[in-house]
Amino acid sequence: MDTKQILEKKQYGDIKSVAEILNVNYPNVQIILRRPNSKLHTKAVNALAKIIEAREKIIQEEKQA
Questions:
Q1: DSSP state at residue 38
Q2: Which of 1, 64, 63, 3 is nearest to 33 (CA)?
């Protein structure tokens, strides 16, 4: 997934989870995700991608069960 796809798939609560992972407050994560030149942008996008992938994996597993 590229950054645009990741940002399109984010859902309610994902930003808060990224904030906890990066130890940054919620409003700052929103700003970091909008600024590709930010120092923490790559880390924030990677954390968000992991959260999205985990959610999608859990949904798939439950649909199959």
A1: S
A2: 3
**pTM across the whole model:** 0.91
Q: Measured between alpha carbons, how far is residue 18 from residues 6, 13, 21, 43 in Å?
A: 13, 9, 5, 9
pLDDT digits (tens, 9 = 90+) for 21-61: 999 999 999 999 999 999 999 999 999 999 999 999 999 99
Q: Residue 65 half-sphere exposure, CB side, CA atoms within 13 Å?
A: 6
| Token representation of residue 21 | 């992972």
Query: Residues with Cβ < 8 Å from 24, sequence gap 6 or more?
Result: 32, 40
- What is the distance between the alpha carbons of residues 37 and 58, in angstroms, rounded to a whole number? 32
